[in-house]
């Protein structure tokens, strides 16, 4: 199996197509299904991507370890090496590259997308919204303003990590509020 590590960009596999996923089942029951954030289950063929695995829409990254502002991916070729390489830009809307978020923090992008999905949803149908943040995953980055609010946390790396967790916490609050505003929190 694939349980030994994550799926990297150049690897020709993904979660087997023989596995029926929750959004596929929910779609067959009439749910609107949307995925926002990190996919990380394979994309080497279109059939492995979120919109082919039961989601009506997808906005986010197909991999992990991406820069939270540039949305580019850089990984060590081998964990022991210090050299890094970039596998390029990784932000997608469905099957297309999405340039709309360049320079914007990933947690904010994903939160805004989740809020938009909720606000546009027709409440006559049930909704399944999968929101998978890339924070607080490496690389450790957060907006300067949020890091500054954590000045009481030391050392600096922990301060940045705390800021990342804070952004995810804010996201949960905003998404919960959007569900309340739409009358969908039940």
Automatic annotation (TrEMBL):
InterPro entries listed in its UniProt record: Alkaline_phosphatase_core_sf, ARSB, Sulfatase_CS, Sulfatase_N
- Which UniProt key words apply to this protein? Calcium, Glycoprotein, Hydrolase, Metal-binding
Cofactor(s) of this protein: Ca(2+)
Sorted alphabetically, which SUPFAM superfamilies does this protein's record hold?
Answer: Alkaline phosphatase-like
Q: Which Pfam families match?
A: Sulfatase
Reading the lineage from the top rank, the first entry is Eukaryota
Q: Which residues form the Sulfatase N-terminal domain?
A: 3-185
One MF annotation (Gene Ontology) recorded for this entry: metal ion binding
> Does the keyword section mention Nuclease?
no
Q: Which family does it belong to?
A: Belongs to the sulfatase family.
Q: Which PANTHER family match?
A: ARYLSULFATASE, RE14504P
Protein name as annotated = Sulfatase N-terminal domain-containing protein
Organism of derivation: Homalodisca liturata
């Amino acid at each position: 199996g694939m349980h030994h590590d994550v799926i990297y960009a150049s690897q020709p596999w993904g979660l087997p197509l023989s596995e029926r996923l929750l959004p596929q089942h929910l779609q067959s029951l009439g749910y609107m299904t949307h995925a926002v954030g990190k996919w990380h289950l394979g994309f080497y063929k279109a059939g492995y991507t979120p919109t082919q695995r039961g989601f009506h829409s997808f906005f986010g990254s197909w991999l992990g370890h991406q820069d939270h502002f540039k949305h580019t991916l850089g990984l060590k070729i081998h964990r022991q090496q210090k050299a890094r390489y970039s596998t390029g830009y990784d932000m997608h809307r469905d099957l297309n590259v999405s340039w709309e978020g360049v320079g914007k923090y990933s947690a904010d992008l994903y939160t805004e997308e989740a809020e938009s999905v909720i606000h546009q949803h027709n409440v006559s149908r049930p909704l399944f919204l999968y929101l998978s943040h890339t924070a607080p995953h490496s690389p450790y980055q957060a907006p300067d303003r949020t890091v500054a609010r954590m000045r009481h946390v030391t050392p600096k790396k922990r301060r940045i990590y705390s800021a990342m967790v804070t952004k995810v916490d804010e996201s949960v609050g905003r998404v919960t509020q959007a569900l309340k505003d739409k009358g969908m929190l039940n």
